[in-house]
Protein 1
Amino acid sequence: MMGPVSGRLVLAGTPIGDVLDASARLGRVLGEADVVAAEDTRRLRRLTSELGVVVTGRVVSYFEGNERERTADLLDALTAGQTVVVVTDAGMPSVSDPGYRLVAAAIEAGVDVTAVPGPSAVLTALALSGLPVDRFTFEGFLPRKPGERARRLGELADEQRTMVFFEAPHRLAASLEAMAEAFGAERRTAVCRELTKTYEEVKRGPVAELVKWAADGVRGEITVVVAGADPGQVLTPAELAREVATDEEAGTPRKQAIADVAKRYNVPKRTVYDAVLAARDPGQ
C-alpha cells in the first residue's frame, strides 16, 4: 500500500516596500495554497487586498514566538499532501525571518521545497551601496548589548568581503559608532533606509560621518552595507607591534602610538594594544 502523497512547501518572497514589486506568481500561489503560514496575518490580509487575491486556504500565524511548535503542524499538512506557502512581513522567508526550521524539517521528511523569488533588502541594498558586490557576507542583526556587539564587530574587523547588516532605527547610531571603533573611522559605509518606499534614502560615506548623520535619529527599515577590509591594509599582530615600536622610537608616547597605528591601518585600538602586549610577552 502506498504512503501519503507529499505536499509542497513554497517560500514566497513579498514586497519590501512597493506593492507593485509583487509578482503575478505570488498572487497565484497565495490564492491556490491549502495553507498560508504568515509572519503577520494582518499584513497578509493587507497584501492580498492590494493584490486583489482571495486566499481560500487556511491562514495560520508563523513567527519567531511560535515557530518551533507550529513547524510540526505545518509538516503534518505537508506530509498529508497539502501545499503550504510561507510568507514573512517583507522579503524572502528564512533570511533573518521564520522559515529555516520548516525548510529543514520538510527536506528531512522528503517533501518538495520550492520558492517564489521576490524582493530582498539584502541584495537591493548591496546594489545601491556603491560598494564592491562580487563577494559579500550577510550578518543579520548585531547583538543588542554593547559588549557583545563590540566583540562581534571585532571578529569582523579583518573581513575582506562587503558586509550587510540589518539594524533597528533606534540602535543605528550606536551600531555605527561601534563600527567606527571596530573598523576605523574611514571605513566606507552605506545606510539604506525605507528601500522601495516613498521616502527611500541611501546615505554613503565614511562610517564616522554617518554616525553624526544618525545622531539626531533615523526612522524606517534600515539595511547597513560596509566595505570589507583592504587586503593591503591588513597587518599581522607582529607587524602592528613593529609599527607602534617605530613610532615610540620616534618619540611618540605608547598610548598615542597605539591610537595612531589603529587609525592608520583602520583597525581597532584594542587589536593594536593586544598585538603590543603579545610582542612583549610571546608566551601569552
Protein 2
Amino acid sequence: MATRRSLLAAGLALPALTPGSGPAWAQDVYPSRPITLVIPWAAGGSTDVMGRVIAAAMSADLGQPVVVENRGGASGTVGHGIVARARPDGYTFLLGTNSTYAIAPHLMRNLPYDNRAAFTGISLVARSAQGLCLHPSVPANTLAEFIAYAKSRPGDVAYSSAGIGASSHLATELFQAKSGTRLLHVPYRGGGPSVQGLLAGEVAMSFVDLITCLPFRANNQLKVLGVGTAERSTFAPDLPTLAESGVPGFASSTDVIMLLPAGTPQPIVARLTASLQKALRDPATKERLNAMAVETIGSSAAELDAYWTEELAKWGEIIRSQNITI
C-alpha cells in the first residue's frame, strides 16, 4: 500500500514538474490564453487601426491572440475605466491618446478611476502629427496670413473639432492662446464628421491628423499651412512647423500610449513591454504604421512617466486659462 501511495504521489507531481504537462505549470506560463487590447474609441478611427496593426504583431510574438475590443464613450474615459477595474493579470491592457490620459482628467468631473494611480505605464507608443488645415475658400496661404485674417474677424472664423475635449479642440485652443486669435468652436461628433464639415465649407479650419489631411491636400480640397509637432514631419517635410512659422512654443500631436492596470506583476509588465518594443521594431509593422503617417516611438516606462507629467501640466494650464468646460 505504501508503494502504491508513493507511486500515486509521484504521478500527481509529474504535471507540475514537467513543462507543458499539467495545470500547475500552465498557471505559471504567460500568456496562456487570449489577451484583450481595449481601444477607448469607436472602430475605424486612426487609433483603432493603429491598435490592430500593433495587436497583430504582438500576437505573433506572444503566441496568443491579442483581441482588439472597442469601448468608446465619454471622451474615451469609458474604456479607461474598464481597464482600471480589470484584474491586473496581464490579460487586459489599453491604448490611450492625449485626449483621454492628459486632457479628460481636467475636464471630466468625478472620473471613476485615478488617472495616474490606476495604471502602470508601458510606453509612449507612437505619434501622429496634426496639420492646421483650411478650407480652400479661406483667403490665406500662409500661417501669418491666416492669423491676420482671424484677428480681423475676432470670434467669427469657425473651426471644427471631434468634440469638446478632443485633441483637435485643445490644439486649436492652444493655437489661439499662443497666436492671440479668437475663433468660433463648432464641435462635431467625432473626427470623421469634423473633417467632413471642413471639406463642406461649414467651418474655415481644423486640426487634422496627417494621414487624413494629406490626400485632401494633394487633391486641392484642403490647404495645410503647417504641422503641430515640434519638428517637421518626415511624412510631409515640406510643411513647416507652426512654431517656426510664427507661433513659438506651439506643440500638439496625437500621441498614443500603452497602459496596464496598476498592480500587474513585473514579469508580465516586462513581457508585454518586450513584445511591444519588438512589434514597433518589426519592419513590416513600421511600414504599415508609416503608411498611416504614424511615427513609431517605443519609449521606456520612465520616459513615458515624464512625458505624461508634462502633458497633464500643459493641457491643464490651457484648459484653465481658456476657461474650457464640458
Protein 3
Amino acid sequence: MRRSSSVPGVVFGAGAFFIWGLFPAFFGLLAFASPAEVVAQRILWTLVLVVVVLMATGRLREMRGVDAKTWRLAAVASAALSLNWGVYVFGVTSGHVVECALGYFVNPLVTVAFGVLIFRERLARAQWAALGLGAVAVAVLTVDYGRPPVIALALACSFATYGLVKKVIALDALRGIAAEGMVAAPFALAFVVVSAVAGDSEFGSGAGHTALMMSTGPVTLVPLLLFAVAAQRVPLSTMGLLQYLTPALQMAWGIAVAHEPMPASRWAGFALIWAALAIFTTDALRRARNSRRTRVQAIGAGGS
C-alpha cells in the first residue's frame, strides 16, 4: 500500500501514541495487584479480545497457516513484550514513571545499537554521535540515581528486541498479536490458576478490581490497531517524530501528577538524551528526504 502523509493517518498515529502516553494513569490504578498478575491478566484479556476480532472478521482460520518458524519468532516477541510489560507495570506502581519515560526516549538509540551489533549495520557520523551522547547520558543518570537506570534500560532493550522481531515476522499486526498471545497464554493461565488456588489473586476480589483487570485487553489492543493503521498511511519519518509523544506525556505525568523528584543532574541526563535524539531524528529526516529526491530523479530519468 502506498504511504501518504494524510491527516487521518496522522490522527490514528497520534491517537496510538497519546493513549500509550496515558498508560501511567491507567496502570497506576492497578497497584493493588502484583506486576506479574497484571501482565498475566493483560495477556489473557488481550488474547480474548483479538480472537473475537479475528472471528468477527472471518480471519481466525488464517492462524492455521502459521508455520513453525513464525511461531518461534512469535515466542521470542512474546517473551520480550511480556518482560517489557512487567517492568513497566513495576516501574509505574513503584514510583518510577519518569524512569519508564526515559526508557522509551532511549529506545530508538538502543534499536540503532542493536542494528550495529546484530546486523553489522554501518552508521553515519551523526548516528555515532547520537549513540555517544546517549552513552554519556546513561553515565550521568547512573551517577544521579546512584545506580544504573535499570528500569529504563530494561524497557528500551526489551522493546527494541520486540521491534526487531516484528520487522522479520511474516504476520500482520492482528495475527501477530494473536500469535504472541497464544504462545504466552498457557503460562499466563497457569500463573492465574496457581495464584487463585494460593489465595494471592486480586482478580475476582471485587467488581472494581475485576473490571480493571479485564479492561487491560481493550486498553492494550486499541492503540496497537491504531498504530497498525497509521503505519500503512504515514511515512516512517513522521511516525518517528510522533513516537516521542508517548515518553513526553509519561514524563509530564511523572513530574506534574506523581511529583517524582527531578534534580538538576537528572535534567542534565535527559537533556543529553534529547540532544542525541535531535541529532538522530534530523539525520533520519535528511536521509528520507534524499531518498525521496533520488527516487523522483530516477523516475524522471526513466521517463525522459
Protein 4
Amino acid sequence: MTSTIVIDAGSAPSQPPARPRTPGGARSAGVTFAGVLRSERIKLTSLRSIKLTLIITVVVGIGLSAAIALLFSNEMRSAAGGSEGAAFGAGASDLQFYLLVVSTFAAPFLALIFGVLGVFAISSEYSSGMILSTLTAVPKRTPVFLGKAIVLAGVSALTALVLVAGGLSVALICYPASAAQLGSSMVVSGVLGTVAYLVLISLFAFGVSVLLRSTAGGIAVVAGVTFVLPIVFQVLTMTGWAWVTTVSEYLPAQLGTVMSRGIVDVASGPTFWVATLAMIVWVAAVVLPAVGVFKRRDAH
C-alpha cells in the first residue's frame, strides 16, 4: 500500500529574509546615525585624558572667576559706599561689566584647554589604532566625522555653560546687588558669545587634528594660533603698518574677546556679530578640508 503526501507550499508560513552574515558569522545590524552619536559619546567621555581635561577646566575656570569676583566686589562696595578712591562705579553698566568680567575672564586662558579637548577627540583614536575599528563598524566616513564633531560640540558647550554659570554664581554670591542686571542684553549676549567661542575653538582644533593626525602637532597649531600669533602681531604693530592692526583684530583670541563683551557699541574693530561670523569662518577654513581628507585618506 502506497501513501502519498501532498505539500501545499502556499500554506507554509513565510520567513523573513535572513540578514547577511559578517565574516565572523554574526548577523550584521544596520548602523544608524543615532547609534554613531551614542558610540562617539561613549568613546569621548570614557577617555581618562578627556575627563581630566574637563575637571581641570572647570576647577581652574571657577577658581579664576572667584578671585576676580572678590577683587571687583570690594571695589564696587567701596563705590556704593561713596568712596572717592573706588576704581569702579555701582551703576547699571558697572554691574553688567562686573558680571561679564567675572563669568568670562577665564575664557581666553581656557581656550587652549578647549583646543586640547578638540585635538583629543580624534587624535587619540589614531594613536591607539581605534580608528580602524571605528571605520570598520561604520564604513561611511561622513557620519563618523559628523558624529565626532557634534558630540565634541555638545561636550564643549556643556562644559562652557558650567564654567560661565559657575562664574555668574560666584559673582552673585560676592555682590548680590548685581543680580538686577543678570538678564540684560549685554550680559546674556556676552555669556552666549563666550560659550560659542569656546565651542568654536574646540571644533577648530578638531579640524586641525584631523588634518595632521598628530596630538602634539594639533596642540602646537592651536597654541600658536590662540597665543603665539597675537604676540607676534603685537610686536609687528611697532612697524607702523596699518594692515597689522586690521589683521590682529580678526585673530581668534581677539575675536573671542569681542564675543565675550556681548552686544555693545564699538568705535572701531569688529562688532559682536562680525566677530562671531569671523570665528565661524576660521572653523570652516579647517573643518571643510578636514572632511575631504578624512573621507579620502587611508586610516593607517
